[in-house]
Amino acid sequence: MTSISVRNVSYRYEDGTLAVDRLSFEVAKGERVAVLGPNGAGKSTLFELLMGLRFPQQGSIHIMGEDLHGGSASRLRRHMGLVFQDPDDQIFMPRVWDDIAFGPINMGLPEDVVRANVHRTLESTGLAGFDGRAPHNLSRGEKKRVAIAGVLAMEPDIMFLDEPTAELDCQGRRDLIGVLNDLHTTMLVATHEVQTALEITDRAVVIDHSKLGEGTYPELLSNKDLLDRASLDAPSITRLFELLEKDGISLGRPTSVEQAAEILRKALLSRS
Questions:
Q1: How many Cβ atoms are within 10 Å of 109's Cβ, its own excluded?
Q2: Taking Cα atoms as reference points, which of 184, 182, 143, 150 lies closest to residue 164?
Q3: Rounded to an integer, what distance in angstroms lies between the CA atom of residue 259 and that of residue 174?
Q4: One-letter-per-residue 3-state SS of 9-66
Q5: Which of 40, 71, 170, 205 is deepest in the core (most CB within 10 A)?
């Protein structure tokens, strides 16, 4: 089943600035896909279009098989959740519990379901014991997890995450990626960080207003012209093996330290 279908979508801002240009791609149910591109490429605007906060001036968007338009947006939005790049734009209640419960309460869910959802998402996002704390006293990474918990408490079928690891320290980044990798829902992640995309998603759509490419990471990372056009950097470990390849040492192009270690282990054992 297709969860998201974007067909030839274009959108310009009121001042005429082009944000999204004839963009098309699909995301299957349960799939985790990155939207990769530089800052200003139209990623955030795309997410606003997918959430029905804006509407295409050309083309169409289908969510879970249904056309997204002014008449259907409110209903379809109940199946979707958007996590903003800046958690301070999303968190506003005096306690963590209240913030996570805000969405389910406004959806009209029964009190016992709200309590169960809040408890479950506090546990799943590593925030057990945070329910009485003030969000403005939390770290950046903890705030991001509160924002994600608030979306998860509404039980969305589709999650959109805008630059989820931006401005996080190493520990906050590791914690957040761990949370995201434990989720079992259709997920679209907007980021300019290839390494982040690799750690969270299975494939990517590369955009700079229009679509530049689409595929698995081995396919995309072997296309240097595509990466250059999108102002994207391959992970350091991949670049290291590319340099070895230029010197005649062809061992493949790993995308993680773990893959690189396995390649080197096999190469060294074969020589010994």
A1: 18
A2: 143
A3: 19
A4: EEEECCCCCEEEEEEEEEEECCCEEEEECCCCCCHHHHHHHHCCCCCCCEEEEEECCE
A5: 205
**Domains, in order of start, for the chain:** 2-226 (3.40.50.300), 235-272 (no CATH)
Q: In sequence order, what are the residues at sequence separation of 6 or more whose Cβ sits closer than 8 angstroms to the Cβ of residue 102? A: 93, 150
Give the pairing type, strands 186-191 and 32-36: parallel
What is the C-alpha to C-alpha distance for residues 43 and 39, in angstroms, rounded to an integer?
8
φ and ψ at residue 268, rounded to 5 degrees: -70, -40
Helix (H) or strand (E) holding 76: helix 73-77
- How far apart are alpha carbons 116 and 244 in whole angstroms? 53
The mean predicted confidence, pLDDT, of the chain is 93
pLDDT in tens, 80-109: 999 999 999 999 999 999 999 999 999 999
